[in-house]
Design the sequence.
């Protein structure tokens, strides 16, 4: 099971009832955070899932509404007692940006391992398989997909054919290698074909670039910005490199995703529910994001 929380759904500035856009994933007790605008740690505290086990933070781009919350969050992680390294992924220049922000939080008890990108990238951290895609904003910006792979089932016939004592079967099932009578036995020797996993995709602060439908293809959940609800604001969205509700819904339809959550609303969009039908007319399974909206994605078999 993969737990998902949308920590905030606002763009540009936090509002009294709307934190800045950020997404949080929980898998087997470990966490992934995507973007960290001002106030993210407050929404995380309200969510109540914890801070210590955040293993990776993804940053889409370096506008303040996506990174200004990092010093406070990292200090909160420090206070949780974490000492393990923490990975951070984002556009080229990430290390410089974060170290400048950390002038006010200079002593962290854990190492930050930076992964800087200039083009599409695939990185595996723990059980999270992370893919990135350059998108179109006013500065370098990336969309992300997070895949959770699922191993095949234990195949007893394969295990028997190895003539390996049964006491070693459980070790292989735990994805560990076995050395027996001078020979190596690998986990894949006793497992069936990989089963369908889970996929969550996230795109904000971008125009709907041509590569996005393939990038988000077959996602169980697609979280996408809809800065304005009305199509009449297309020229403004194009000028500032953002997306409308209708454009996000069109991407969801083209990408054959299972569900769409809209997020990153303009401060001027005070009643996004008034425009939900604009998206649903294109992609029926569209839902409005709101602070601490959660879902649990289950494996299909």
Sequence:
């Amino acid at each position: 099971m993969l737990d998902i929380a949308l920590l905030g759904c606002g763009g540009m500035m936090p509002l009294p009832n709307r934190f800045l856009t950020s997404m949080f994933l929980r898998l087997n007790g470990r966490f992934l955070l995507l973007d960290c605008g001002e106030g993210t740690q407050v929404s995380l505290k309200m969510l109540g899932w914890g801070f210590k086990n955040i293993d990776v933070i993804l940053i889409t781009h370096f506008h303040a509404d996506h990174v200004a919350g990092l010093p406070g969050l990292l200090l909160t992680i420090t206070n949780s007692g974490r000492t393990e390294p923490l990975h951070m992924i984002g556009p080229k220049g990430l290390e410089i940006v974060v170290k400048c922000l950390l002038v006010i939080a200079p002593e962290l008890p854990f190492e930050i391992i930076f992964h800087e990108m200039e083009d599409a990238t695939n990185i595996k951290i723990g059980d999270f398989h992370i893919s990135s895609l350059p998108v179109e904003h006013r500065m370098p910006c990336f969309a992300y997909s997070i895949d959770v792979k699922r191993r095949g089932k234990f195949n007893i016939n394969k295990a028997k054919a190895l003539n390996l004592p049964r006491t070693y079967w459980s070790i292989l099932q735990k994805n560990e290698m076995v050395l027996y009578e001078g020979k190596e036995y690998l986990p894949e020797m006793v497992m069936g074909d990989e089963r369908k996993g889970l996929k969550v995709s996230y795109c904000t602060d971008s125009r709907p670039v041509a590569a996005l439908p393939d990038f988000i293809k077959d996602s169980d959940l697609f979280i996408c910005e809809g800065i304005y609800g009305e199509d009449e604001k297309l020229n403004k969205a194009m000028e500032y490199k953002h997306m409308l509700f209708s454009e996000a819904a069109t991407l969801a339809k083209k990408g054959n995703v299972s569900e769409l959550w809209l997020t990153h609303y303009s401060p001027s969009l005070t009643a996004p529910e008034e425009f939900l039908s604009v998206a649903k007319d294109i992609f029926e399974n569209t839902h409005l994001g709101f602070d601490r909206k959660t879902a649990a994605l289950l494996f299909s078999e």
